[in-house]
Structure formats: structure tokens, C-alpha cells
Specification:
Strand content: over 45%
Number of helices: 1
Mean pLDDT: 86
Low-confidence stretches: 1-32
Number of strands: 19
Length: 221
Amino acid sequence: MIQSATNGRLHFTVFLFAHLSLAHALGQSDQTTTPIEETLLKETSGEVYFYEGKSYTGLVVKTHPNKKKAESYSLKNGKLNGVWKGWDEEGNLVGQAEYKNGKIHGKFLQLRKTGGREFEVNYFNGVENGAFRRWFDDGKLWVIENYLAGKLDGVSTTYFSDGKIQISTEYLAGKKHGLEIHRYENGQPRWEAVYEAGKLKSKLRWKRDGTPSGQNPPDIL
């Protein structure tokens, strides 16, 4: 099934925020300690975690109802700091992320049950910054785009499952700016649009055989 880069980003955003709110996620600290159960922690409104009345530094684990490990992470002075890892109820590693001083900082990676990568995105101080990549089930690249200070910036590319380019879009500071091209599976351009600061300036459309089409571009624009 073909989906747009926008759908990929939406799926990713929903997953990430739901995961963080339910998981209190995170990784390993530089201090070797015996892990404590997450249920023993208390969280303040400022997302600082306390254990026995003090901000906690050390390892934390969370378990599934079947007693298998669900998450492992660490806290430093009560804040998420280090590498978070998550597992499903069957024991498969399904994700990992890096945090620093309570904010996601570094790579967030979601894995499939098979161990293959589903998507990864880089963060800097809690904000998307750098490459976002998403893969098909078979491991082939599906989407690649770039973030700068939390906004899409540069070329966003979506691929067909055979590796050919489906959509190519230029962004600047979170807005479409420049050329956007959508192609048929045979590589022939389907439609082409030019944007300036998010506003559509011109558009053209072609039939599968390459002849011009008088129809308006699809709603994906």
C-alpha cells in the first residue's frame, strides 16, 4: 500500500507521544546500581522522579503483566538521562532512544518484531533535528527527510517499494518551498507543482504515457 510522507510523519508523531506518556521512558546512567521497579517512583508535575522522598539517580525497569521486561531506563537527579529500551511481551526489542537532562537527545529508533527497523529520527534537546527515515517491512527505504529545529527543511523523498522515487518535495523552515514532483510507478511524472513559502504558485499534470492532462492535481497537494 502506498502512503505519503505526511502519513508516515503522522503515524510517527502519534506513536511517540503516546509512548512517552505511558512509559516514562529512558536509558542507562553512568552509575551502576540495582534497578528498581518503576512502580516505586513518584513523578512531579515537572517530570522529575522521586524515590523515598529524593530525586532518584539510577536504573529503572518496568515489566509486562507476564513479568517479562517491558522497559529499562535511567534517571539522573530525577530526570530521564541515558538510553531507554523497550520490549514487547514476547521479549522482542521494539525501540530505543537517547535522553539528556529529561529531554530526548539523539536517535529515536523503532523496531519491528522481526528486528528490522521501522523508523528512526534524530533529536537535539527535545526537538527533531536531522534525518528522519522510514522503511518498508522488507527493509527497503520508504521515506527520508530532514528536520532543522523541529521543522522540515530540505528535500523530502518518498519511494515506491521497488526503490523508485514516488514523491520529492522541497521544504524551507517547515513549509513547502520549491519544486514538488509526484511520479507514476514507471517513473513518468504524474504532477509537478512549485511552492513559495507554503503557497502554490504553479502546477502541471501528465497522463501515465507522458501526455499533458487538463485535470487538476490530486488532493495530496
